[in-house]
From TrEMBL:
Record-stated family: Belongs to the thiolase-like superfamily. HMG-CoA synthase family.
Organism: Vagococcus teuberi
Annotated Hydroxymethylglutaryl-coenzyme A synthase N-terminal domain residues: 2-163
Pfam families: HMG_CoA_synt_C, HMG_CoA_synt_N
GO biological process: acetyl-CoA metabolic process
Database matches in InterPro entries: HMG_CoA_synt_C_dom, HMG_CoA_synth_N, HMG_CoA_synthase_prok, Thiolase-like
Name of the protein: Hydroxymethylglutaryl-CoA synthase
Length: 390
């Protein structure tokens, strides 16, 4: 049995309240909080990037045993910090993982971490005494005043994959699908994503419905075999738009259960925003940490991973006995309640702050005073990114 043994998330401790943002933009706040389904959005200071966030998510999980047995580090990201060097190689160094491990990034929009999880599960099936560290880490940016502004966010999810996992066993059958489309993308020359909003919603929904038909055909499983479905959540209404059509003919009892658990799975994303590759796993953590009294060992959870461009996958897992004892719910609550609510002015300043590297590749700065994270980005020296640890 192979699956997720430990799981944690990190998000920067600064956010913008979306009712305030709506008022400032002259939009009815209900559009953001009900129509889109988002309340708060994490905004990273310049001292938090894809690498430091990933290290902050993974660090609390690691014991001496993990550091000596993780032979594979995979980071799914679409907002890496270098065109060549992997985020995973920085992580290997920052976390002090033993030298004979393999470190690599995987890219396919928000699907990267799922590809990483599948690679890690296969790796551990082949090497049952070894472990893998899988991370999804991203800063989602569409730009100030853009149509996607309210669906931005920042954060990372880290997971340790092992034999005899303490949280969830990943089952063997999954179904993936690829279609080369332009619903959301970011050319190399652009710092913000380009999106065809309506088309991206339609693509997401049709990928889910086509995959569900194929998945149920291949496995003979029906919705009654599931206790919950977790979705990639660019915003919390998105997954529900995909889920509702397949629930139409479902018996009320099962429909109510799946909708109730869907709500639990959205709590964290509603207050953090879109974290791209980590989003599906943030939704899973939200579910198991908020619905834990109604979920029990052997319950089957469905996962829908969607990465624009586009690749998607439905896979499943079964919760294992004692999973509740391995959750970091109290730490997550503390992280979210101790955040700083930014004014519109501070949000704008933070959002637009950039490195100003001189001709020798230098720009070093102090950790932002709002940022109390363990790992932080210090700037560049001789074109090399440097990180600090508190
Ligand atoms: N009160 C309540 N609801 C309101 C309202 C009000 N006053 N005003 C509007 N609404 C509702 C609308 O009826 C609509 O609801 P439905 O979708 O259920 O019909 C909802 O609010 C959104 O309204 P609009 O469609 O008019 O919003 P918009 O034009 O501003 O665009 C968006 C919304 C397309 C999500 C846009 O924010 C966007 O492009 N976001 C980025 C792309 C994205 O997240 N796509 C998701 C799929 S792609 C993916 O998943 C990969 C990824 O991570 C990017």
């Amino acid at each position: 049995m192979v699956g997720i043994d430990k799981i944690n998330f990190y998000t920067p401790n600064t956010y913008i309240d979306l009712e305030e943002l709506a008022k400032h933009r002259g939009v009815d706040p209900a559009k953001f909080t009900i129509g889109i389904g988002q309340s708060k959005m994490s905004v990273p200071p310049i001292s938090q990037d894809t690498v430091s966030m990933a290290a902050n998510a993974a660090y609390p999980l690691l014991t001496e045993n993990d550091l000596n047995n993780i032979d594979l580090i995979v980071v799914g990201t679409e907002t890496g910090v270098d065109e060549s060097k992997s985020v995973a190689s920085f992580i290997h160094d920052l976390l002090d993982i033993h030298p004979f491990a393999k470190s690599v990034d995987l890219k396919q929009a928000c699907f990267g971490a799922t590809a990483g999880l599948m690679m890690a599960v296969d790796f551990v099936r082949l090497h049952p005494d070894k472990k893998a560290l899988v991370i999804g880490s991203d800063i989602s940016r569409y730009g100030l005043n853009s149509s996607g502004e309210v669906t931005q966010g920042a954060g990372s999810v880290a997971m340790i994959v092992s034999s005899n996992p303490k949280i969830i066993e990943i089952e063997e059958t999954s179904v993936s699908m690829t279609k080369s489309i332009f619903d959301f993308w970011r050319p190399n020359y652009s710092k913000t994503a380009i999106v065809d909003g309506k088309f991206s919603n339609e693509a997401y929904i049709s990928f889910f419905s086509e995959l569900w038909v194929e998945y149920s055909k291949r496995t003979n499983l029906s919705l009654e075999d599931f206790s919950a479905f977790c979705f990639h959540l660019p915003y919390t209404k998105m997954g529900k738009k995909a889920l509702l059509p397949i629930l139409e003919k479902e018996a009320p009892k099962n429909k109510d259960l799946l909708l109730e658990n869907y709500q639990y799975s959205t709590n964290y994303s509603r207050d953090i925003g879109n974290i791209y590759t980590g989003s599906l796993y943030l939704s899973f953590m939200s579910l198991i940490e908020h619905a834990s009294s109604s979920l029990t060992a052997t319950d089957r959870i469905g996962f829908f991973s969607y990465g624009s461009g586009a690749v998607a996958e439905i896979f499943t897992g079964k919760l294992v006995d004692g999973f509740k004892d391995s959750l970091l719910s109290a730490e997550h609550e503390k992280l979210l309640t101790n955040r700083i609510d930014l004014s519109i002015e501070d949000y704008t300043t933070m959002f637009t702050k950039e490195l100003s590297i001189d001709s020798d590749g230098n720009h070093l700065f102090n950790q932002d005073k709002t940022d109390n994270s363990i790992f932080f980005f210090k700037g560049t020296e001789n074109h090399q990114r440097l990180y600090g640890k508190n």
